[in-house]
Structures are given as structure tokens and as C-alpha cells.
Amino acid sequence: ERGRLARLRHTPALTLDGQKIELLANIELPEDASAALLAGSVGVGLFRSEFLFMGRRGQLPGEEEQYLAYRKAVEGMQGLPVTIRTIDVGADKPLDDSRRDAAHLNPALGLRAIRWSLAEPQMFLTQLRAILRAAAHGKVRLLVPMLAHASEIRQTLSLIDFARAELDNRGVASGRVEVGAMIEIPAAALILPTFLKYFDFLSIGTNDLIQYTLAIDRADESVAHLYDPLHPAVLRLVADTIAAGTAAGKHVSVCGEMAGDVAFTRLLLGLGLRSFSMHPAQVLAVKQEVLRADTTRLAAWARQVVEAEDPSAVFTA
Ligand code: PEP
Ligand code: MG
Q1: 130 to 93, 158, 197: CA distances (angstroms)
Q2: Residue nearest (by alpha carbon) to ligand 1 atom 4
Q3: What angle do CA 1, 283, 94 make, to 5 degrees?
Q4: Atom 8 of ligand 1 has which residue's CA nearest to it?
Q5: Minimal CA–CA distance to 71: which of 173, 199, 205?
Q6: Which residues of the chain register pLDDT less than 50?
Q7: Nearest Cα to 23, choosing from 2, 42, 10?
Q8: Predicted ipTM beyond 0.90
């Protein structure tokens, strides 16, 4: 099976009805770019930058160290786009830094991701400058995790402008970036017009979207049986985000585990998704599903699945 899949590496990801599907890789370190390329992905849809920050006692990486790491990922992808997500620490990804990791009552609902970045603006500006500098070396998209409030969006965008102004004042080169938001909190999926007004693209984080929609801690084994990607509420939020983003002419991707699970490829295609980002090891298997799919036939079925009382029954029928 592996050998057969490997032959698909250079095959364009086209559906039977000729739809071009973008298959991207999720990476955690710059070195993973080679695995992303080998897997036949056409870019990085999610670079989880927090892995540069985790497990370091004391000092967090400074601007120069981060710039070199992001640049390495960008150059490693040889001209293909790299989506760098700003730091998403907290909850299931604790920083090894006792001062910031003081035991929180409920880390998944606490000071994580963009909330942490906005609470630590100097750290955030350092990261933003490093990303903007790396963007001078290739195609970079900047992705912001865990946004829910319009005020957070405006604060984030003004910090990006500020970081660029700081570089300009220092006479340091920076590159253009598209700026996008993760849709991974139900509140975000329910105010899509606000997100579409401010952002160039959206990326749906199904891991957290499922967790927060169903009130299931994604790391808690005792409720793992209730963590259901096919819950109608989850599917509706995913379907609405794809539809609204596409109607607004914005790029929409899914970068949660759902995108790399071949069981869901046809459903997501049927809902109109044209960009998937996943662990490099999944790219060829998902491509094989894409090559067998006819989106003109899948759309009506996908609608039925989303509207069902028990989607898993329709899904497997
Ligand atoms: C997600 O929440 O689906 C996601 C891609 O981000 P992470 O798994 O890093 O929280
Ligand atoms: Mg997430």
C-alpha cells in the first residue's frame, strides 16, 4: 500500500470532475519541511510555531533565533507557501516556564494562544517581527489561533502593523504576508462576517472546534467517546465556515485532524472544501481519496449528512 501510494507523489490532486484540491502539510519544526515536500504536499498549511518555545527552561527564543527558524522552513519549502501560526501555548501545549504556567483552573478555557500573546505584547511583537522578516524569503501566510472577539482581531492586526513599522524604522527588510484566522472557537464560526471583513483567509481547527462545541476536553480519556467530529453541531459550524468563506472569495482550509482522516475526505469535499492541511504521513492517502471523488455527486449527500439528526447513520449508509 505504501509503495503504491508513493507513486501518487507527483500526481496532481484533481477530483474526477476536475476540481483542483490543495493538499498541505502540518509541521512542528523547520526541519519538517523536507518531510512535507517528500509527502507531495504543495505547501505548509500549519506551522505550529509553539514547538520552538516549548521545553526550554528559562529563555524563550528571541527575534533572531525565530527569524532563522521561520526562514529555514520557508527556504525548505522551495517557493511553496508556508503558513506560520503564531504561538499557541497553554492547555495541551504547556510552556516549560513555571512563571507563565502557573496552574490554571481550566487551561483549555484559560490564557492560551492569542490570549497569551496579547497579554505578552513584547513577546508577540518579537514573534511578529521574526515572521515578517522571514516573509522576505518566500511566500508566508500568518495565521492567528483562538480568536473569538472583534477587539482581539483589531488588537492583533494593529500589533502586526506596529511590528512592521518597527522593522521599517530599523531599516530591516520584511515581506508581504496574507493574514488569516483559525476558526476553532464556536463563537468565531458564529460571527463569520466579522472574520471575513478583517482576514485574507480562514483555517478551521477542528480539534479545538469539536472540543469547545461539545464541551469535551480533547485530552480527557474518560469522555473521548463523546468527542464526535460528526456531531451535527460541529458539522454545521464547519459547513457554514466553508460556505461563507468561499462565498466571500476567501481561501478556506481545514487544518485539524479531520483534514488528514480519509474517512472524512469525501464529506469535506462535498461541503465545498478545496484545501486540506494534515500530517505529512497522511497526504498521499488523502490524495488517493481525492482522485476517486466526484464533487458534483458529493454535494447533495454532504448536505444530507449535515442536516441529519444522526449524521453518522447517513454517513456510513
Ligand atoms: C486545531 O485545533 O484543530 C488545530 C489544528 O490546532 P491545534 O491542534 O494545534 O490546537
Ligand atoms: Mg487548535
Answers
A1: 21, 16, 26
A2: 205
A3: 120
A4: 207
A5: 173
A6: 98-99
A7: 42
A8: yes
Mean pLDDT, the chain, rounded, equals: 95
pLDDT at 103: 57
User: Which three cell numbers, joined as nine digits, stand for 311?
Assistant: 449524521
Query: Looking at residue 59, what is its pLDDT?
Result: 87
**Phi and psi of 34, rounded to 5°?**
-65, -40
Which of 207, 227, 238, when mutated, tests ligand 1's pocket best, judged by the most ligand atoms within 8 Å of its CB?
207
Each residue of 124-146: pLDDT tens digit?
Answer: 999 999 999 999 999 999 999 99
pLDDT digits (tens, 9 = 90+) for 190-199: 999 999 999 9
What pLDDT sits at residue 105? 79
Residue 88 Cα: closest atom of ligand 1 = 9
pLDDT recorded at residue 99: 47
- Taking the CA of 92 as reference, the closest ligand is 1
pLDDT at 97: 54
Q: Of 49, 112, 184, which is best to mutate to test ligand 1, by the most ligand atoms within 8 angstroms of its C-beta?
A: 184
Return the SS3 of 93: strand
- How many Å apart are CA 241 and CA 271, to the nearest integer? 10
Residues lining ligand 1, judged by CB closer than 6 Å?
Answer: 46, 48, 88, 184, 205-208, 255-256
